[in-house]
Amino acid sequence: MSMLEEIWSCGLTYKDRPVKAGSPLERTLCLYAKNAEKLTKMLTGEQKEQYDKTIDAFNDVVSVTEEEAFELGFTLAARLMIDVMRSAEIPSIDEA
Q1: CA distance 55 to 31
Q2: CB–CB of 19/29 below 8 Å?
Q3: Which of 31, 73, 88, 91 could make an S-S bridge to 95, C-beta 3.0–4.6 Å?
Q4: 59 near 48, Cβ under 8 Å?
Q5: What residue spans define the domains of the chain?
Q6: What is the pLDDT of residue 69?
Q7: CA count, 13 A, side-chain hemisphere, 95
């Protein structure tokens, strides 16, 4: 496991983050919940099981995508820091 994977796996999950009232995310989650409730009322037992499996698989896709985006963002930020440090004029100890 890489260090970034370890940082990510220490409890940083989408479910743990607060959702700001009135935000686009909150509106989207409410729409999703409303539509999911309507749909599940129309499904039979076996269809509900398949729907639940599909939602679980989609949540797994979201989790993997979110972790990969975190790793990419962190890597890009580190590269930017390296670039800034290379171009910065840092006085030596003798100059101070």
Answers
A1: 15
A2: yes
A3: 91
A4: no
A5: 20-87
A6: 93
A7: 4
Buried b / exposed e over 47-79, threshold 16 CB at 10 Å, is eeeeeeeeeeeeeeeeeeeebeeeeeeeeeeee
Apex 49 CA angle, 46 and 53, nearest 5: 140
Tens-digit pLDDT profile for residues 19-40: 889 999 899 999 999 999 999 9
Neighbours of 8 (CB within 10 A): 19
Structure token pair of residue 64: 């993997």
From first to last of the 96 residues of the chain, give the pLDDT tens digit: 677 777 766 655 555 667 889 999 899 999 999 999 999 999 999 999 999 999 999 999 998 998 899 899 999 999 999 988 888 777 767 655
Which residue, chain included where needed, has tokens 């820091």? 81
User: Is 67:8 a contact under the CB 8 Å cutoff?
Assistant: yes
